[in-house]
Amino acid sequence: MSNIPTYKGEFIEFMARSGVLTFGEFTTKSGRLTPYFVNTGNYRTGAQMEKLGQYYAACYMENMAAGTQTDILYGPAYKGIPLVVTTATALYRNHALDIPFCFNRKEAKTHGEGGTIIGQTPKPGDSVVIIEDVITAGTALRETMEVLKNISDGIKIAGLIIQADRMERITGELSAVQQVKQDYGINVYPIVTVRDIIEHLYGREVDGRVLIDDAVKLKMENYLVQYGAKAH
């Protein structure tokens, strides 16, 4: 019996059904052989994006809503653009929170209104929550921080919401999530972690198939022993 919150379990099964979470043998960008893979580029339909926004919104409500003022949701180009839009929509529709959003252009517009930001531009003192797909080595986040800093030095980053935390080391002993906390003081809120995935799917049928049986679980546990971040 899974002890994780209901929306997390539903999200894990949603990822599997969408072909985003798969199991087998894969080589990561760092050259590691992993028994599972998360490819967020496999969301392809309006129905999937509508559901995805609900899960981001649920994660926001669990971690950010109580006692936290959020002035703007920010989605880094390119993957963050549809994510921030569907999250803002779900927060309004399901939780009656009408939070402005924005995203950036990769190239500055030189005509019309100009600039690099579309939507509500953050101003000094604004509290911003970043909506992203995943973080790996943190390169994309560094770019995001530069974009936001160029808009205003006074922006406050209230948190970063991502879909999944693999909980594995990057270059040192820290995971990408831990590194973000150390480098920027930003709390990262994953909708699910790899531990959630193992706990929820082990021995459970999804559409008639058990995705994590004893053999797969052993491979995932061994992978975390070998590559998992310390004291995560």
Name its key features:
232 residues; alpha/beta; Rossmann fold; six-stranded mixed beta sheet; 7 helices; 10 strands; 39% helix; globular
Task: Please provide a written account of the structure.
- The protein has 232 residues and is of the alpha/beta class.
- The protein has one domain (6-227): 3-Layer(aba) Sandwich (Rossmann fold), CATH 3.40.50.2020.
- 39% of the residues lie in helices and 24% in strands.
- The protein has helices at residues 6-17, 46-63, 80-95, 139-151, 176-184, 194-201, 214-227, and strands at residues 21-27, 33-38, 72-75, 101-109, 115-119, 127-131, 156-165, 188-193, 205-206, 209-210.
- A 6-stranded mixed beta sheet has the order 5-4-3-6-7-8, with helices on both faces.
- β1 (21-27) and β2 (33-38) form a beta hairpin.
- The radius of gyration is 18 Å and the shape is globular.
- The model has no long low-confidence stretch (mean pLDDT 90).
The percentage helix is: 25-40%
The residue-averaged pLDDT reads 90
Shape verdict: globular
Adjacency order of strands in the biggest sheet: 5-4-3-6-7-8
Q: How many separate structural domains?
A: 1
What is the CATH C level class, in words? Answer: Alpha Beta
Give me the number of helical elements.
7
> How can the largest sheet be summarized?
6 strands, mixed
Poorly predicted runs are none
Strand content: 15-25%
Structural class: alpha/beta
Please give the alpha-carbon distance between the first and last residues: 23 Å
Number of strands: 10
Radius of gyration: 18 Å
| CATH level-two architecture | 3-Layer(aba) Sandwich
Helix and strand run = HEEHEHEEEHEHEHEEH
